[in-house]
Amino acid sequence: MTTETFNRPVLLVEDNPVDIDLTLRAFARRKLTDPIHVARNGEDALAWLERWEAGEPLPLVILLDLKLPRVHGLEVLAQWKANPVSRAIPVVVLTASEEDQDIATAYNLGANSYIVKPVNFEKFLEVADQIELYWCITNQPPR
Amino acid sequence: LECRLRRADGIYRWWLICGVPVRDAAGTILRWFGTCTDIEEFKRARELLAIQTQVLEMVAIGAPLSDTLDTLARAIEAQVPGMLASILLLESDGIHVRHGAAPSLPEAFIRAVDGQPIGERAGSCGTAAWRREQVIVEDIAVDPLWTDYRDLAAAHGLRACWSTPVFGADKKVLGTFALYYGVPALPSEYHQRLIAMTTHCAAIAIASNRERAALCDSETYNRMLFNQSPIGLALAGLDGKLVDINAAYAGIIGITIAETLSLAYWDITPEKYAEQEQEQLAELKATGVYGPYEKEYIHKDGHLVPVRLRGLLIERNGETFIWSSVEDITERKRAEEALRRLNEELEERVRERTAQLEAVNKELEAFSYSVSHDLKAPLRGIDGYSQLLEKDYCDRLDDDGKLLIRNVRASASQMHQLIEDLLHYSRMERRSMQVNSLDLSALVKAVVAEQAAEIRQTGVQLRLDVPLLTVHADRDGLAVVLRNLLENALKFSCKAQPPTVEIGARKEDGKVMVWVRDNGIGFDMKFHDSIFDIFQRLQRAEDYPGTGIGLALVRKAMGRMGGRVWAESTSGGGATFFLEIPL
């Protein structure tokens, strides 16, 4: 563990308060991530671009829901992947949608992973675990 | 010289007198040396011959029958002065006589006889025609044959009447020839000769006239048919020049018959048909017939008239002609055009309707998508929070409390499954079908492989009886069907000892039959139809899990591919589900 990665921010883009709460609780168990920023809609999510450009530390991974108010998740994804500042940040699409169309478009736009949110909380805890372990520990973030 | 001399018995006869003078040496006539020949017979014969010749000449040139018969009658009367000749014609009905010729009979008498029926006592003529033999009445006043007409005859001073039937070549009675006399008399040998010749001539005249009339009538009739035919008829030479046409033909192009005859085929056919014309001409020369084919004629106004032609080669006096029928099909073409436009309109409407349906479908798609998505969010909440409650507060919950929480989670889980199934069901409708050639056996094996773990776990004895068959169907759809049927079979037979599942297939005229059989709990056939309804379950959820969507999916999928599904079962005796896949 280097000082660089001691502070492991994660950006969660999610509009549903229940989902936000459950996700935060799930991630809080392992205490591997800190802080977890939350953007409640597509607009707010895109606003982070300015902050990153201004020099704020990039998140280790972005958890992106697709059904967002103001700007759709896929549009947000497209913009992030088009911007050199944010392009390299790993994006895990975390959504309830299993639709082929969404999966295909997400990957085409450059999503690094696509996970369908399980309704069963136990399963969700497992998923959260895996995400944390993989993206925050195992994976080498871009420099 | 010929002269008529009176004999000693008072009868006049013709004599030919020839004389040669005997002269003396000085040239003075001393006496006459001569012959005197009775040429009465000769003269008569010559005269009869002359009459015959004259009558036959008239027949030959086709003089009107009345003229011919009149000439004949007059000629006869001239031969027997004092006698009146009458020729009657028998109508085709064989019953009524009509006036033929009677140059000297009184007008009133003629009119009275005209149209009378023949019979046993119809005067001399009527009776002669009836009996088909000569009838001689010496004295009309006393003869029973004239009973009905006695007064009529007497009024006109007729006493004797000799009537002879005129026979045609086929022995049919054509009419009668009669001689009347002012005083009672019987015919002499000369009279009979006269009568014989007259009837002979009359027969020829009448028969010939009838033939000519029939021919003329036939000719007129045929010509009328040609002229009045509603279909255009045209006779043309091989060079295309029009020889004979009817009014209908001329009418097609809006000109008179006379004007048309100055044209040739090529004058009224637009150039664009040149190639087709050549083809038709070739066919005509090869087979003797051409058409039917369609093209256009140029109307006098300049517009084009669609026509339909067909024809053949005919010969006349060694010359070959093209005989064609031409029909104006403007109306038909118009109807076809209207029909075509109607079809286009209908197709357009179908396209519109399809687009509408597609739009509606898309709406439904969006609807079911967002509904399921939005419904799942609170479920996550219910499940998540109840889990956290159980985990983080388990020390503060008693067994009952824990049970309550577990029930909450079970309900949430069930709702989740229902939503998933609904989504699945609606996706089935929305998804496009891709019909391919499938190896049925391979597909069955693949679906079975998916359930490998389940099969191993339940110890099911699986039997596959699927021959090498190719079906044309949507792979995903068929996979869903097989998967659901297999899952059901495994599920409902799990309590059997041992559970057996059999999957088989067979090709049967134009279709492929597939069946999935299990030895599980089966069902009562009275529920057969309802088990395919959505969310219909016969068993309790605790005993056999499931939302009841499986068979509904199967039915929908089979319906989409034009096949069908049905089942046979007895309660407690297993079940067999049959599929019919059209080829």
Radius of gyration of chain A: 14 Å
Helix and strand run of chain A: HEHEHEHEHEH
Number of strands of chain A: 5
The whole-number mean of residue pLDDT values of chain B reads 86
The overall strand count of chain B is: 20
Task: Name the beta content range of chain B.
Answer: 25-35%
Biggest interface in this structure? Answer: A-B, 16 and 17 residues
Backbone CA Rg of chain B: 56 Å
Estimated helix fraction of chain B = 40-55%
Cα shape of chain A = globular
Quick take:
The complex is a heterodimer of chains A (143) and B (583). Chain A has helices at 3-6, 17-28, 42-53, 73-82, 100-109, 121-138, and strands at residues 10-13, 36-39, 61-64, 91-95, 113-116.
Task: Name the descriptors.
heterodimer, A: 143 residues, alpha/beta, 6 helices, 5 strands, globular, B: 583 residues, alpha+beta, 5-stranded antiparallel β-sheet, 46% helix
Lay out the secondary structure:
The complex is a heterodimer of chains A (143) and B (583).
Chain A: H1 3-6, E1 10-13, H2 17-28, E2 36-39, H3 42-53, E3 61-64, H4 73-82, E4 91-95, H5 100-109, E5 113-116, H6 121-138
Parallel strand pairs in A: 1-2, 1-3, 3-4, 4-5
Helix pairs in contact in A: 3-4, 4-5
Chain B: E1 2-6, E2 12-23, E3 29-38, H1 40-61, H2 65-79, E4 84-90, E5 97-101, H3 107-113, H4 123-131, E6 135-137, H5 150-155, E7 160-167, E8 173-181, H6 189-228, E9 232-237, E10 242-245, H7 247-253, H8 257-260, H9 274-287, E11 289-298, E12 304-316, E13 319-328, H10 330-392, H11 399-430, E14 435-439, H12 440-450, H13 452-458, E15 461-465, E16 470-474, H14 475-493, E17 500-508, E18 511-518, H15 550-560, E19 564-569, E20 575-582
Parallel strand pairs in B: 15-17
Antiparallel strand pairs in B: 1-2, 2-3, 4-5, 4-8, 6-7, 7-8, 9-10, 9-13, 11-12, 12-13, 14-16, 17-18, 18-20, 19-20
Helix pairs in contact in B: 1-2, 1-6, 2-6, 10-11, 11-15, 12-14, 14-15
